[in-house]
Amino acid sequence: MRKRFYQALAAVAAAALTAGLAFSAFAQPPVQEGQQVFQQKCVGCHTIGQGDRVGPDLKGVTQRRDRSWLEQWISAPDQMIARGDPIATELLNKYKTPMPNLGLSRDQVLAVISYIDAVTTGQAQAPTAASLNLPAGDPVRGKNLFTGVERFQNGGPACLACHSVAGIGALGGGLLGPDLTGVVDRYGGPQGVAAFVSNPATPVMSSVWPLKPLTPQELADVVAFLQQASVGERPFQLVWQLAALAVVGTAVLAGVATVYWHERLAGGLRRRWLRAHSR
Question: Which candidate, 163, 159, 154, 161, places its Cα nearest to that of 211?
Answer without folding.
Answer: 154
